[in-house]
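Dear colleagues,

As part of the handover before I leave the project, I'm documenting each prediction I ran so the next person doesn't have to rerun anything. This entry is a single chain, and its sequence is reproduced below.
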Amino acid sequence: MIPGSNSDHPTFFQSFKYALEGLATAVKTERNINVMLILGLCTIVAGFAVGLDAVSWCIIIICCGLVIFAELCNTAMETIVDLTTQELHPLAKRAKDIAAASVYVLSLTAALVGCIVFLHALHVI
């Protein structure tokens, strides 16, 4: 779509198609997305194993979704940086490192929340 133009605006269903294409591309090309998806799947299996309640499921699903969202955003930001420069510029490195750090912080937070949810479900805390 050309900025400021409505003539090339995708339809509602085309927008979903593009989003699914983006997700498929990320899954095919980005190792970390696959790691996050596998860990999310393992968490869901563990949730069934311990019999999480509805609120705990909501917390786990939100955490998994946020981590995958952050990894997709990080991938998009890194792609934009790579598009803008081919040289090893210090600001490009800084942008990519900070984007990666945001995923790292969210992943640690989600892991901590997950530990609390599972320990509570197991009546440890």
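The mean pLDDT is 92. The CA atoms of residues 63 and 109 lie 9 Å apart.

All the best with the project,
I.
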